[in-house]
Amino acid sequence: MTFKRFDSEGVVVLLIDDDRTTMMLLSKVVVAMGATVLTASDGARGLSLAHEHKPTAIICDYHMTPVGGASFLAGLRNSSEDDVSKIPVIMFTAETDEATMAKLNLLGATECITKPFNPKGLSQTLYAVTHVCHMSSLVEPPDFPCLPNAQGWKDPGQDALPEWSQEMSVGNDTLDADHKAFFELARNISEALRHKDDSHFTIASSMNMLGEYVAGHFYREENALRALGYNNLAQHHHKHRMFHGRIKAIAEAYQHGTFSVVDNLPSLVTEWLRQHIMVEDMQYKRWMRDSAVDNRPLGLLALEAEDKYSA
After folding, report:
1. Where are the beta strands (DSSP E) in the chain?
2. What is the dihedral sign for C-alpha 110, 113, 119, 125?
3. In the structure, what pLDDT confidence band is assigned to residue 135 with cuts at 50, 70 and 90?
4. Taking the CA atoms of the chain, what radius of gyration do you get in angstroms?
5. Which among 281, 279, 267 is positioned nearest to 162, based on CA atoms?
6. Nearest-CA neighbor of 148 among 273, 43, 240, 49?
7. Structural domains of the chain in order of their starting residue, each with its CATH number
8. pLDDT digit string (tens) for 59-97?
9. Which residues contact 140 (CB under 8 A, 6 or more apart)?
10. How many helices (DSSP H) and strands (DSSP E) are in the chain?
């Protein structure tokens, strides 16, 4: 099996796992991609290596002893060193329930991958997160953050937000329109955040609309992929659940008075979406057929999705 190699030299990936077999498999993938590997068997040692070597990316298991993945992630994100707190982290977990996904999202996991993992899928995810963060480090101030919820990062403003472009087209006008609407909504939220003191109602309304967009679009897209017999639907659904969990966690925190939690929301939405389209969605583009896509409004689809998943 061949893997896409990193574009630049000097990529360092820290692997944190207490299972030797998993560590060996991870190391083979990362080395084949052209990166240097650092290893740790628990979160405490991993945190020490992260501060010492400041790796390009980290892959970390969720369940470890004595210091597990959640504690490691919290420690990393709370680091006073920006070049440590913003390192992208891919979390490994066998748990796919919404509570776990929401917890990891809120702690600042860049991506989550379920066990047992697919080496090809892992390599694509690792390449994507390191590429995004490498590109963001080439400009000052950054066009977008590696980790939109990292401590100390401030939203770059509406003008710096990425926009939908033709290269993001998935070959269907309805799905493309959904994606465009996400980008536009992010810009509206960014504008409201410029006047946060008197815009709480606008922000709250936009958060509700974003939740509706997320639920309706994911439902539309997954139904189309299911109708087409798309073989990566389970992994695609998992990515959707991760993002939906993060949006829900942010909305709940905002509703309970933690208003600063939305400061980075526009960049979170646009950067996650851009990466998701260019990595995951492009994999189904050749499968897509207009006849498989439900063209009803997002709001109606969101209601159907809520009924289905709450039943």
Report:
1. 12-16, 36-40, 57-61, 89-93, 111-114
2. negative
3. very low
4. 19
5. 267
6. 273
7. 12-136 (3.40.50.2300), 158-310 (1.20.120.50)
8. 999 988 888 888 898 889 888 888 898 898 998 888 767
9. none
10. 11, 5
Amino acid at 29: V
Instruction: Work out the average pLDDT over 168-176.
Output: 95
Question: Residue for token digits 């009803």?
Answer: 296
For tokens 């707190």, name the residue.
85
Q: Hey, is 63 helix, strand or coil?
A: coil
How many Cβ atoms from other residues are within 10 Å of residue 197's Cβ? Answer: 6
CA 154 to mean position of chain CA atoms: 18
Sheet holding 57-61, edge to edge: 36-40, 12-16, 57-61, 89-93, 111-114
Structure letter (DSSP) for residue 113 = E
Q: What letter would DSSP give residue 230?
A: -
